[in-house]
Amino acid sequence: KERLSQQDEAGSRAALVTAMVIKAKGGKAAKGKGAKAARRGDGNRRNNPRAFKAASGPKAMQRKAHRALEKQERQYHVQLTDRSVEAATPPPAVVVVVGPEGVGKTTLIRSLVKHWTKQNINTSSGPITIVTGKSRRVTLIECPNELNAMCDLAKIADLVLLVVDGSFGFEMETFEFLNMCQVHGFPRVMGVLTHLDSFTNIATLRRQKKVLKHRFWTDIYEGCKLFYLSGLKYGRYPKQEVQNLARFISVIKFRPLIWRNSHPFVLADRIEDVTSPSAVQRDPTTSRSVCMFGFVRGTFLKPGMKVHIPGLGDYFMAEVSALDDPCPLPERQGLRRRLNVKEKLIFAPMSNLGDVTYDADAVYVNIPDAAVRFSQRKSFAADAPNGGEGEGEGEGEG
Q: Which GO terms describe its cellular component (predicted)?
């Protein structure tokens, strides 16, 4: 009997120890699950009866159909006819790069030009027209930090790239341009964050991205696209990041605005002074005759119309003539997915890029050294009278 009682005591002790271990393990696991649920925010998940209801059944299906119809109804809007695309070939879309000084506007334009045309551009002065696809062209222009220029570009921009220094945040120039867009008609807007390589802590970088994104959505609209560009590589932004931005620019759809549908306007690619040099020499303050070249956007431009030149005033046009397209779209040749290298054209007369450079005094044609061919003297000697034997003095052969 004593032996049995001792065995019973030992067994009860072992059972008690096992129960304590199991209870301890269960309590630790329960605490871990509770902490995970608290981090996920699942503690009060079922407390909202509106958000978390039955996902199946007749009522649930009815709610899903009702929500889908409401979502579709919010997408309806009054259709507007874009009068600028009524022509056989629509003009290029105007993409304005806006931002304060030192945020990387010029570097962004250089990176986009390199991505689309495989050419390097040193200076981005004036409009830069590029063929980006089989049926789309884009005109890139950098917005200076002047109130008048920002007001003029806000009227004609189809797409605005707001460049923001990620390490500093939004600045005054960004909000000024957004207020001007609200007055003249709000174009499509995409944000670009730069200087993100200055962050050494990943947690700080994520927090800054989140803060800037919510601020960006508050000023424009919720869901507006925001792109992140990290550090420079060979003087340009990384290829993959630029490619993501270029794809969105190539496929984005523009909504026509009322002001542009009722007003023709021209963004001058280049300006040429055709005033007689003798008249300017006699009187430097004489009236000038100026030719402006550019794509007509909006409605049709008629001869004899009165036009407004920013900074100068209202003038009557003397003549309007149609010229050949300096940056034409490629011809349709079957079903092709991409452009050839020769079809990726660029037209930037003010940026010293390409074969022709326009200056205030003359027009320069750049000829590569490999294409230069000099005539030999023997050919001139054969064409000269008396076989090239004259009274002149000279030595050597060509």
A: 90S preribosome; nucleoplasm; small-subunit processome
Strands 306-309 and 313-316: antiparallel
Q: What is the residue type of 189?
A: V
Inter-CA distances, 248 with 110, 124, 344, Å: 17, 22, 18
Q: Structure tokens of 301?
A: 């431009």
Q: Could you tell me which of 292, 261, 252 has the C-alpha nearest to residue 95?
A: 252
Q: Look at residue 315 and give its three-state secondary structure.
A: strand
Q: Is the pTM of this model over 0.85?
A: no
What's the Cα-to-Cα distance from 14 to each of 1, 28, 90, 237, 320, rounded to whole Å? Answer: 20, 21, 88, 68, 104
- State the alpha helices, DSSP H only, in the chain: 2-40, 58-74, 105-117, 147-156, 172-184, 202-219, 239-251, 258-262, 277-282, 377-383
Report the candidate in 313, 326, 268 with the shortest Cα–Cα distance to residue 294: 268
pLDDT for the residue numbered 97: 94
Which token pair is 86?
Answer: 């009524």
Q: Which amino acid is at 12?
A: S
With beta carbons less than 8 A apart as the criterion, state whether 353 and 129 touch: no
Give the number of C-alpha atoms closer than 13 A to the C-alpha of residue 287, restricted to the C-beta side.
Answer: 3
Residue 347: HSE in the Cβ half-sphere, 13 Å Cα cutoff = 20
Whole-number pLDDT of residue 84: 63
Place of tokens 């889908």: 68
Per residue in 291-341, pLDDT (tens digit) is 888 888 888 888 888 888 888 888 888 888 888 888 888 887 666 667 777
Question: Would you state the pLDDT for residue 396?
Answer: 45
Gap between the Cα atoms of 213 and 364, Å rounded? 47
Eight-class DSSP state of 336: -
User: Could you tell me which of 156, 3, 164, 188 has the C-alpha nearest to residue 98?
Assistant: 164
Fold of 88-257: Rossmann fold (3.40.50)
Question: How big is the chain, counted in residues?
Answer: 398
Tell which residue, 145, 96, 121, 127, has the closest CA to residue 249: 96
> What is the domain partition of the chain in residue ranges?
88-257
Nearest CA to 325 out of 84, 90, 83 is that of 90
**Residues 51 and 60: beta-carbon distance below 8 Å:** no
The token pair at 230 is: 């990290």
Q: What is the pLDDT of residue 39?
A: 61
